[in-house]
Amino acid sequence: MKIVIIGAGMAGLTAGIALKKFGHEVAIYEQTEKILPVGAAISLWSNGVKCMNYLGLTEQIKRLGGQMNDLAYIDGHSGDTMTAFSLAPLVKEVGQKPYPVSRAELQNMLMDEFGREDIHLGKRMTQLIQQDDSVQVKFADGTEISTPLLIGADGTHSITRTYVLGEQVSRRYAGYVNWNGLVKASNNVAPLEQWTTFVGEGKRVSVMPVADNRFYFFFDVPLSVGLENNRNTYKSDLKGYFEGWCPQVQYLIDQMDEQTTNRVEIHDIEPFLKFYKGSVVILGDAAHSTTPDIGQGGCQAMEDAVYLARSLQVNTLGIEDALQRYQDKRNERTKEMVLRARKRCDVTHMKDDAVTQAWYDSLKKEKGQHIMQGIINNIVGNVLD
After folding, report:
1. Where exactly are the structural domains of the chain?
2. What is the C-alpha to C-alpha distance for residues 297 and 294, in angstroms, rounded to an integer?
3. Per-residue pLDDT reduced to its tens digit, 61-73
4. CA–CA dist 2, 134 (Å, integer)
5. What is the DSSP secondary-structure string of 227-248?
6. Where is the FAD-binding domain (predicted)?
7. Any idea which fold 2-171+268-379 has?
């Protein structure tokens, strides 16, 4: 079957690879002239890695992934360790190591695996119309295409979602701003194979190891939405927000490159359960835009892609039947992930001072089991369990 995907991000590329493996003829249309990753890196938890394994990309992901063997929380002011433990029990429980990876490197790998010749850039969709057994798509450059199945992987600002739902939904500001990037890994910040998070005042500073001796870093600060965004003041801004924090955090700020650092106001979208209309279906952020607080956004997009491809392959009562089964399998799980991330966001970023302080206090008593069980709960129940 000929299939068109709108959007060449992680969701669209993963779906394209999966569908090609089942013999479909797939083309991806992307509105930008040049594909650039959104964010510096992504934490691929074990369920996301299993999706990559399923698509035959095991070795590619291992090469891109950092060795994240341990986890620690550090008091951001004193630099004292609140809790630290090995992730080995988690890996044994779920059967796969997690891999933090550079977004740019992951996206390039996925484009190579899909086939760049089938990715059409500079194609901004302006209209889609269902006509009998096909979907007509119009682009801003005046071109038109027709396809039996249209997959919307066009992100948090999805046009396809508006078509499926019959209305445009609003994004919800989660209450904090995130700065993220890549730096050379250094023991002056944290152990090289450890996911380390400094916490205090509802703020977070975190580093994860990625390939080639680098740390993926991010800073979270609860702030009002719509503040000035001046790349040239990122370091001084963060020095102000984290004044009095421990030397490790100050060293990290000094090492970051303002010109390659991203600043993002974090939003999500209220969960909904309708993922398709006729022969048009959505996945990834178009279907369930979430905050990054449990690291499941990309992983859920990959689960979507694998299950959608499998549903189209094994169900033979027609496209809409397969899309209905995909929707019914995925919508409740992704809704739960959005709400879990929102709840974790509120605790981490001090929506309620007492709740966040209670969490800080609990970290000092944590041996690892509670935190790992929370992560395991996000991983299990995926399409490949």
Report:
1. 2-171+268-379
2. 8
3. 999 999 999 999 9
4. 10
5. ----GGGHHHHHHHHTTT--HH
6. 2-339
7. FAD/NAD(P)-binding domain (3.50.50)
